[in-house]
Amino acid sequence: MLVMVTVVVFILNETSADRCKDFLGGVCRDTSTPCDGGRYHAGFCDGQANRQCCVHDTTGDSECKAILGVCQDISSPCTGGIYHEGLCTGPVHRQCCSRVKVTGTDHRCKEVSGVCQSKFNPCSGGYITGLCTGPSDRQCCVPDTESELHFFPGRVSRDCLGCICKLESGCSPTVCNTNDMGLESCGYFQINPIYWIDCGKPGKDWKSCARDIQCSSQCVQNYMTRNAREQRCSGTCEGYARKHNGGPGGCKNDSTFPYWNKLKSIPGCENI
Length: 272
Hints:
By secondary structure, this protein is α+β, with helices and mostly antiparallel strands. The protein has helices at residues 2-24, 59-66, 107-111, 158-169, 193-198, 206-210, 213-226, 237-246, 257-264, and strands at residues 27-30, 38-41, 51-56, 70-73, 82-84, 94-98, 115-118, 126-128, 138-142, 176-178, 184-186. It folds into three domains: 24-57, no CATH class; 61-142, no CATH class; 146-264, Orthogonal Bundle (Lysozyme). The chain has a three-stranded antiparallel beta sheet, with helices on one face. A three-stranded antiparallel beta sheet has the order 4-6-5. A three-stranded antiparallel beta sheet has the order 7-9-8. Helix 8 packs across helix 9 (257-264). It is elongated and about 80 Å long. Keywords: Antibiotic, Antimicrobial, Bacteriolytic enzyme, Disulfide bond, Glycosidase, Hydrolase, Signal.
């Protein structure tokens, strides 16, 4: 009889431990023991009241917090919100319950090969604002691919080209946008047909050139060389960036200051 009781207790303890692990990704412990940077949750472990589930705070859970959500088992109701996959650590049925919708403009981040996440999380490249839904600290992390790119040499430095490339497209060839006048711009540097003609029409056509890193960076170099003396813009990255944004006289136009300030906010471009 004693053996049977022991077996039953063992099974119950295994079940409670599994519930703590499966539902919360935690471990059953006595609350007198520190929970190593996490916190205890009652009701997931058998035994006395001080035996609770220790769940560590993780980077994955901070993704859920970034959209004002809570990680929990999907068997629990998500009152007033919906569940989002991939924002919580632990088993697949532990998901993020949030009232914030993370669809919509998130596809713009994916178009530049980025991932929407909290800006407080590490990012191997840099963050771009305005491409993700949710709170302001939920931004698009674009991996650093500049080291893999081969820019055409010229008067604009490689570092400056890299920063313009990151700002314009996240250094992605796939992004195309249309401005208020209906003019389409594409590729690494968001080149449009007029810009392409002004840079000497390298490559087969403007769109294929815009999507080729060598051709598009050559176009930028040609454009800056051709318009080097226009408005006496300085031969600095600021002069080139503002000219790229506002045309030959862009460096003298106050409307290009926000573009330059945004470029300097990109990690690695602060002192360009």
